[in-house]
Amino acid sequence: MTDSARLRAADLTLEEKASLTSGADFWNLKSIERLGVPSIMVTDGPHGLRKQAGSSDHLGLADSIPATCFPPAVGLGSAWDPELAERVGVALGVESAIEDVAVILGPGINIKRSPLCGRNFEYVSEDPIVAGSIGAGLVKGIQSQGVGSSLKHFAANNQETDRMRVSADVDPRPLREIYLRGFERVVTDAQPWTVMCSYNRINGVYASEDPWLLTQVLRDEWGFEGLVVSDWGAVNDRVTGLAAGMDLEMPSSNGRTDAELIAAVRDGSLAESVLDTGAQRVLDLIAKAQARPAVTGPLDVEAHHALAREAAGRAIVLLRNEGGILPLAPADRVAVIGEFARTPRYQGAGSSQINPTRLDTALDAIRAVSPAAPFAAGFTLDGSGDAAALRDEAVELARAAEKVVLFLGVPQQEESEGFDRTHIDLPAAQLALVDAVRAVNENIVVVLSNGGVVALPFAETVPAILEGWLLGQAGGSATADVLYGAVNPSAKLTETIPLSLQDTPAFGNFPGEHGHVRYGEGLLVGYRWYDERGLQVAYPFGHGLSYTTFGYDAATATVDAAGDVRATVTVTNTGTVAGREIVQAYTSLPGSSVQRPPRELKAFASVALEPGETAVVELQLRRHELAYWDVRIDDWAVEPGTYVIEIGASSRDLRVRTELTLDGDPVSLPITLDSSFEELLADPVVGAELQAEIDAAFGPAGDEMMNLLGNAPVGRLDGFPMPREQLLALVQRAQRGA
Ligand code: BGC
User: Fold this and answer.
1) Which ligand 1 atom sits nearest the alpha carbon of residue 157?
2) Using CA atoms, how far apart are residues 451 and 465, in angstroms rounded to an integer?
3) Which of 76, 166, 411, 593 is the most exposed place for a label (fewest CB within 10 A)?
């Protein structure tokens, strides 16, 4: 580009502008040779670079060049560490820059509404603060390298079933407080270069055609400055989409929709200024990409693999460790059982599939410490073979061993982008294997590989469980690091592990039917649901053990100059090894006038402590995130009152609490004849007068009368408690405020 920064959309012809706002092919934008505007490449994402070698196939699923496969979001998120996410983001940016990729298509931060969503492995959490914080870390890291990110899939894309058409029917409060809150955090904290709008409709309107979503909320309210790109194939009507704020269609529509745009401008149904805006955003994106200093390879494969290993070690959740069976000692005679030890399941299937530079297996890594460890597959990943014979072979190894490390998980073909799961059970052959092994050796350490949550019917019967999720290319080594204590586990669950699918919040409302999915659980997503219902769970949100223990003491909370809440808590490593604790702060507001879950996460922090070391951990609870969405004023409002702040090691292991009284945001509701007697009584100008009239008319019976009629609209009952003319005058004075 001659000087893209100064190039204005007005310098382009109508045809050039239409052309620029749609892709050249699957991964590249169009160039404009006349003006020296180059073509730039955008490509997946999100946990590694998926740049296809040579010409791309139509679906974009062909093999890609080798790149570091970091832990997918399900794993990386479990570290609860935005700084770690940022370091991974830096590495993603470096790999993209070396390959001259302008934008990497991630992160994905959609809420895990149901454990059945086929793409949960690509998403971070059932909680928006966790999802938004990790997403912001990734975006900052990627963009620090002069490479753009694409925050996706905006919005309410929480299932794969009928994903290109389904309408997510969501009420305003859950939409704002759960499904958009994480996106808001990433946009306001990290300003992604691009946002990718999702395939689905929201309350009947395609995300790619929704001016409320793409312009009012994203730009006007949150201050987004970048470009909106469609998910691949999400454009239903490009003219409508462009007017709504969808700037760039991907992939190419081979000129078809360019012609539609041109025709719409010519016949006056689309203002050319709208096209100018979209084209300008594309020009600006290209200019930003061009401004990146040239980076030459080669990629430091070893360094990035080491980071992938560190991140994977931080992603493994120690769910259970009875009797201190873990960590293992090198001298322990362990038997390694389960095909996943030899054939790792380390990422999910679909558009995020990376071609890793290396692949570690847990079996090799365990044998590097305990060379004599025997191995039996125990089952096959595709269910083929003689299950009984495989099981018997594993049982014989288990019988002769001191301890068994048993790798279980969800085979790749059972979870992928493009479809949802129908159950959360491990394959029957694996569950039978657990029983058979336990009959001969109870010292079992289960290691799980799964993108979505699985039910754990054996949880109480085995002494240890490591939830390994999907850990990327170095997951095998990281698993051995944790098993043998080279890494002390510190990860925590970003999603609840339920006892059964039937207990889950969206059960009965997922995946919907006939083009609609009703978000019937409302605000009660994830732990909010289990807590409100008082349901037992297998492992709660926020749970994760360590090889050490932590003590909590002395919670405080104050309001800082910006109006945010600063909480502090003293955390001590009370065990004998160094460790890291994820400190979580939850709030509630007893007596709230609106529905609220029993507690909601508002802040968290990760602190590393030597044995015996104490630290004062500070947590920032943003005032804006204490607000609820008030549908009466169509705006956020912090309710006044005394908030309870509970701080602890999980949503169900709260160790200390404090309280803080906050002023509320002014919420002024206009008084009309439709206001209730209670609302008019609360009015500062005329309330007392109305009360006096009621007292005069009914005496002591007035209170009883108000129990009965307090919520009736004042305009509805002529002559009560005063002549209508007098009541009208009262309402008008309330409206005037004098
Ligand atoms: C996915 C996106 C992805 C795009 C390009 C779509 O099907 O939903 O996440 O970035 O394809 O591969």
Assistant:
1) 8
2) 16
3) 593
Going by CA atoms, what residue is nearest to atom 4 of ligand 1? 232
Catalytically annotated residue among 162, 231, 360, 630: 231
202-234 per-position pLDDT tens digit: 999 999 999 999 999 999 999 999 999 999 999
| 570-592 pLDDT, tens digit each | 999 999 999 999 999 999 999 99
Pocket-testing residue among 52, 230, 232, 416, ligand 1, by greatest number of atoms within 8 A of Cβ: 232
pLDDT confidence bin for 162, thresholds 50/70/90:
very high
The amino acid at 238: R
Compute the average pLDDT of residues 517-535: 98
Task: Report CA(313)–ligand 1 centroid distance (Å).
Answer: 28
pLDDT in tens, 255-280: 999 999 999 999 999 999 999 999 99
Please tell me the residue having the least CA distance from ligand 1 atom 6: 232
Is the CB–ligand 1 distance for residue 98 below 6 Å? no
How wide is the angle at C-alpha 26 spanned by C-alphas 298 and 269, nearest 5°? 135
Q: Is the dihedral of CA 212, 215, 218, 223 positive or negative?
A: negative
Residue 60: CB within 6 Å of ligand 1? yes
**Averaged pLDDT of the chain:** 96
Structure tokens at 534: 């008082």
Tokens 């803080």 correspond to 660
122 lines ligand 1 (CB under 6 A): no
Q: How many whole angstroms separate alpha carbon 368 and alpha carbon 134?
A: 33
pLDDT band at residue 57 under the 50/70/90 scheme: low
> Which residue's alpha carbon is nearest to atom 11 within ligand 1?
232
Catalytic site residue 231?
yes
Spell out the SS3 assignment of 554-618. EEEEEECCCCCEEEEEEEEECCCCCEEEEEEEEEECCCCCCCCCCCEEEEEEEEEECCCCEEEEE
Overall pTM surpassing 0.85 (yes/no): yes
**CB of 152 shorter than 6 A to ligand 1:** yes
Test site for ligand 1: of 41, 44, 57, 154, most ligand atoms within 8 A of the Cβ: 44
C-beta 52 within 6 A of ligand 1: no
Residue 310's CB is within 10 A of a number of other CB atoms, namely 18
351 lines ligand 1 (CB under 6 A): yes
Q: Which run of H or of E encompasses 288?
A: helix 272-290
Distance CA 598, CA 589 (A): 8
Q: Select from 57, 160, 161, 231 the residue to mutate for testing ligand 1; criterion: most ligand atoms less than 8 Å from CB.
A: 231
Does ligand 1 lie within 6 Å of residue 232's CB atom? yes
List, in order of start, the domains of the chain with CATH numbers: 9-290 (3.20.20.300), 301-522 (3.40.50.1700), 550-662 (2.60.40.10), 677-736 (no CATH)
Instruction: Tell me, letter by letter, the H, E, C secondary structure of 300-363.
Output: CHHHHHHHHHHHHHCCCEEEEEHHHCCCCCCCCCEEEECHHHCCCCCCCECCCCCCECCCCCHH
Q: Which ligand 1 atom minimizes the distance to the CA of 163? A: 8
Residue 113: both structure tokens together: 């509404």
